[in-house]
């Protein structure tokens, strides 16, 4: 591929990269910087891309490292009051999923997902997953992404966002429950439509 063609392909991922970086960094200029650095690194290292993964995966891995570096460098914290406001949004919906004895209520019980490996390989699944992730409160999605996509340990998330370990675990549990509910409705129920 020519350098111009590589630049066009990599730049095509820019909107998704910005969205991901903004969610994590909570700072437009910081997100722009991280994305620009990732694109420059990708263009500079394209000849080392071995093709063992999709180009998009490779580019997002570079961006992931840039975001981790930025988060660790600034040691950013968030005011606890802003976290409490977002957390209350899920309380009512979450509590409705369970009976008083903490077991799933019959109408909320998770349905079998079929063959998850087959679903994971379907491109549309990831579109639905991204839509479900956007439905979560921003702080909940951010904690989930830090843990599952950026690979932060719980103590790192707690330090970065000024959370207690138990609060972080509750947020992660609610994020997973919210994603599961959305995916049950939007994908595994057979409709393959965003919820």
Automatic annotation (TrEMBL):
Instruction: State if Cell division is listed as a keyword.
Output: no
Pfam families of this UniProt entry? Sigma70_r2 (PF04542), Sigma70_r4_2 (PF08281)
Domain RNA polymerase sigma-70 region residue range list: 12-77
Q: What is one Gene Ontology biological process annotated in the Swiss-Prot or TrEMBL record?
A: DNA-templated transcription initiation
Q: Which Gene3D superfamilies match?
A: 1.10.1740.10, Winged helix-like DNA-binding domain superfamily/Winged helix DNA-binding domain (1.10.10.10)
Molecular functions per Gene Ontology? DNA binding; sigma factor activity
RNA polymerase sigma factor 70 region 4 type domain: residues covered? 129-177
What's in the keyword line of the UniProt record? DNA-binding, Sigma factor, Transcription, Transcription regulation
Q: Which family does it belong to?
A: Belongs to the sigma-70 factor family. ECF subfamily.
Instruction: Please give the NCBIfam families that the UniProt record associates with this protein.
Output: PRK12532.1, Sig70_famx1, sigma70-ECF
Q: What is this protein called?
A: Sigma-70 family RNA polymerase sigma factor
Q: Which organism is it from?
A: Zoogloea oleivorans
Organism lineage: Bacteria, Pseudomonadati, Pseudomonadota, Betaproteobacteria, Rhodocyclales
